[in-house]
Structures are given as C-alpha cells and as structure tokens.
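This entry is set out below.
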Amino acid sequence: MKIYRPLLLMLLILTGISWFSHTKAWKKTKALYLPKKQIEYQPGTPTREKMQQKVTGARKFTQQKKYNPSLCFLIDMSLPSGQNRFFIYDLKNDSLKASALVAHGNCFEYWLEGRRYSNVVGSGCSSLGKYRIGKAYTGTWGYSYKLHGLDSTNNNAFERPVVLHGHSCVPENEITEEICQSNGCPTVSPGFLQQLKTIINTPAKPLLLWIYE
C-alpha cells in the first residue's frame, strides 16, 4: 500500500493544479501579476466590417452634433481583452491611426466571465453607447477624463462615475491571455493614455468615444 501513496499524492496534486488553473482566482492572478506572452493579432473580416459600420455612423453623428469631424475613438467589446480593441480612427482620411488594449468592467465580481453591461449606478459594469469625452482631472486613478453618456444605455456614466484613465495592469502590447478588469471604466495602458492626451487636449470641438459590441 505504501508503494502507491506517492503516486496517489502526485495524482491529487496534479488534479488540484488542473482545477485551480480554471478558477477565477487563477485567471485574475495571471492578468495582474504573471508575465505576459505578447502576440500580434490580425483583425478578422467581421471586426473590420463592424468598424466600418460604426465609422459611417460616427461620421454622420459628428457632423450633425458639431463634434470633432477629424477623429473618433471606437471600442469593440466583442473582441478578447488581450487583443487591441480601442481604435483611434481618422474620419477625415478614412484610416485607422492606432489601436490598443482596453479593459472592460467586472460588474464588481472577483472575475467576470464573458461580458455583462449595465447603466446602473454602482453596477461596476461597462456601458455600451456613445460618449462625449469631457474635462481632464487627476483623481483616484491618476490623470483621467470625465465621460458623458449620450445614449439611454450609458447616460449615467458621469454620475457613476465611469471615466477614461490609464492603469499599469493594462499591457502596452497585445497578449495571448485576458487582461485585468475595471469597475466599468474603459481603462488603457499608461503609454496609450499619453498618446490619447495629445489628441484629446488639442481640438476645440468635443471628441466622440463609441463603445459597442
């Protein structure tokens, strides 16, 4: 019987490791603390087609509402969080200027599986819809931008508050795993926030940010 105890112990350890690797605790640990393996994704046809649909809508919206007609920000929440899904789009020249990672809300769960959206104050979830990027300020998350929800799905953004800010848990490059989650804010990497600052702080007209799925 003693001969089989080490094998049984090893089996139990391997079973435990296998189980833990599928838990929310492990997923959050990987996202926050473990080294990241970088990768470069190629956006598929559905992603590009969806973006073009939003670009058409954004161009019409900016003209009607007198927003900045040259640029807009698009966030496709249907994409994996380790893949670039925050897009800076040049409406004037009809071209993609840059893209980066962005976190989605965890709805105040330890680790949110999939996606869930809410406009409720205190929900901790991301909200879909169009936003006007407001004034910059320095708060809990450092340099941030107020966001004003323009649709019925996100018109509580300012009150919640949902803001655009950076955080070191968001990698600068695409990775194979999921990234950290926020409490509802579209959170980007510190480096990308610096790039956004040069854009947001320049134009006189307001900029459109559109989060969709």
